[in-house]
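Hi W.,

Here's what went into the run:
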Amino acid sequence: MGRYILKRVLVGFLALFVLVTASFFLTRIMPGSPFQSGTVSEQVLSALEEEYGLDRPPAGQYVVYLGNLLHGDFGMSYKKPGVSVAAVIGRAWPVTAALGFLAILLAAVFGTAAGIWQATTEKKAVKGGIFLGTMLGTGIPNFAIALLLALLFGVKLKLLPIAGLSGVANYVLPAVSLALYPASVITRMIHNTFRDEMGRDYVALARAKGLRWRRILLTHVLKNAWLPVLNYIGPAAAFLLTGSFVVESIFTIPGLGREFVTSIANRDYTLILGLTTFMGAVVIGINIITDVLGAWLDPRIRRTCS
Amino acid sequence: MKRTVSVFMAISLIGILVFGGCEKQEKEVKDSTKEIVVAINSETGGLDPAGMIALTYLAYSVSALDELLTFDENGEIEYRAAESYEVNEESTVWTFHLRKDAVWSDGTPVTSKDFSNTIARALKPESGSGYANYLFPIKNAEAVYNGEADIESLGVDTPDDDTLTFTLEKPCVYFLDLLRLPVYTPSCSAYALDASDGWDKSPETSVANGPFYLDEYVPEQYFVLKKNTRYWNADEIKLDKITYRFFADQQSMANAYETGEVDVATGLQSSVMELYEGKDDLYITDTIATRYIYPNLNVKPLDDVRVRKALNLAIDREELCKIVGDDTEPTVNFIARYMKDRQTGEYFVDGAKKPFEENVEEARRLLAEAGYPDGKGFPELTYHYPTLEMDSDTAQVIQEQLKKNLNIDIKLNAQELQVNYTERRAGRFDLCRMNWTADFADPYTYLSMLLSNSTYNCSGIRDVEYDRLVEQSDTETDPVKRAQLMHEAEQLAVGEKFYIIPLYTMKSCNLIRPDIRGIAQIPATGALEYRHAYIAEEN
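Here's what came out:
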């Protein structure tokens, strides 16, 4: 097991290095310069590019950047005067992480509950209703849902705030917008596995032993039904924890997704690289954890890997 | 199972009600203080007048910083940090006498050193100031910026704490108009030493000499300005607090106005005009800006004046604006439609006849004369524009009109804003969209752009006659003669040589709560100012 983890971590670092290198040269190939603003004069522009070392060849810039990165220094933002990339991440990541975590929690809880309900109910209306809900949830993109929620609960009913982060209430609508898609997927997964599992022998045996139906469902069946969900939640979490540009923009949330997209539009090279590296590390990290968890739960994977 | 689901539903409903309730309470508290919440575009740049600044500084400075003097809507001088000034006969030495009672929001006096502090720091290239070139009329400023002269040789003197003298390279009749620019605004010499140490966004060190001071700054979310009770004119200031909230998206801004989370939302999309038609909330302002197209003179056949004229005459600007949106208004001028002539009080461009009239027949004739009858043999030109909605719509209409009227093909190339700037700067285009918002209230801000040596002249204009007219106007001290020279220059560039294709000027669409009064428009730029805003008492 230890060797397996070590191997995964090493591969992770290699992937991160490739990511940094590729993004570094891609940002330099992109047309445009961070200091263009439409009102800046040629003279000021070239003075600035010299000041930031952008007049040097990219290979030289890369060596300097990599050296700093090894010391944990992401550098300073080009477009936010006096603000380091680490400070931007330190500010935006907690917001995005809180929102992403809330969305995953909502998706897991409501998705599981709805899936079980759909699989066990005998009412056609409930079955159909949940099915329709999951169809809509996976079919409508989250920015459309976000706008609809903002219009309904914010503009029309005036129940919830839709801009900024002044309180807990501000998290409700964006978290729901983000949670709807994964919740629908989880509902379907739970529903499908529940339907299969309920016909299995161990369920019949448990019933024959006289165990209560609810207990059989929630302890025995659910345990098995959650295995595929765990495999799905890993990548879904990686996606949610790196932020969604559209949802963050609609609800004016100062998260990572928004920072990332604006940094690209601004050609803020250090910020683009810093955020790419950080998000890459998060995604790789979550994948390692999921893999290790999977290996721990299923010895077959562990054996083939070692 | 049903019960479990019902419990979830109940919890979430209670949650919604509780959080909804919190929000309402906050609002009630807000109403009892004289506070307004203003929605502005995403955070860009810092707050140091000598540093790398953009929209956020502009929003901050109109409420927090006093420039030496400014002009009111009637073109009269309004003294702010200065109480008087003198100028020598040649308009080369300008002396300002500062208010003796003016203090920073921490109580320390505002001195002439605070003004030279900004200037000296802005003249270091590493400051990142995009406005440094507006200091170049000052003696040796350009040399200092380029590292060819010492800061001591700069034509800025501070003989005592209350006197500030500028010695210029050559006469500059619009020098007073430049004073509203960031680089001429003071920064407290006790704290403002280096833009990169973050003094500008920290309430302890970011002191103000204007009616409001920075109380809180939360990056990417909002900043709060509070009334500066030490302000020399504090009695005239009615608001206690202004909160500026950042928005990344215009629709979210309009929604937040609708939910009551902001009281003022500026620069909204034109669809808001229809939604709020006839309501008191809607406040339309003119911007001092012109959207136009640069035809590249180094590209054939755009080097032929007849072709440039044909393109200009074949565009139906009325129709264009009708399609693009209610917030645009046709113009055939280069100088912004709503820039005022301080001498007459009228719009400057109304002081002369229009540079040209649209005429499709004439356009066709000219194109035939240039060797392309009915567009035959005319090469396909590419139009570069940024991927903003307004510019994309414009591009499509122009493509359609030129096909219909001249039977020529225009290829559209939408670019990211930064890419568009770079390609334009490098002169890599056939036709390129351009927009210019006045930096200061003088037509020179426009005319100087087409000079042979101008940074913004990226289409290869080299016109000795034009350069002569503009430079002559630049040193002419008689206002009437000067206006005449500037009209001549514009007529030459737009009406005879057709160096540009003017399209339209824009209106700004704003929403303001009807009970908020006293919001003014800054004549130089068209931006809104909240210094004298107040909340009307309800009857």
